[in-house]
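Quick one: structure for this chain?
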Amino acid sequence: MLMPSIFGENLFDDFMNDFSLPSAKSFYSMPSQNVMNTDIRETEKDYVLDIDLPGYKKEDIKAQLKDGYLTISAGHEENSEEKDAKGRYLRKERYTGSVSRSFYVGENLQEDDIHAKFENGILTLAFPKEQPKKVEEDKFINIEG
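Got it. Here's what it folds into:
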């Protein structure tokens, strides 16, 4: 469960991070905080989005273009359990989550125009800038006579 933050910090971060078993991987190290941070760059011809998706695999990520909106979504599920010699649980944690974010990219963009690459937890999407529509000048027909 995500808790409300005050001044950009989660109220329970320090408490929960201090409480962990020596060999346990913290539940809060899973991709629930600070995901989908996005950097947007502009080049001469393209826009480039770098989206942080730590802990996700390529198979977990989907990108869809619909009605001028580029929507990126990712889902992840992980189970972690430790048992003693008799099979009793000492610790059992589960994480299931999904994130999604949309960007308006313009009505004229097609799926083939978008180039995507996922490497080291960063999804990079590049697509061409929308060309400005030419404003038609008022043209008059020359009348002789």
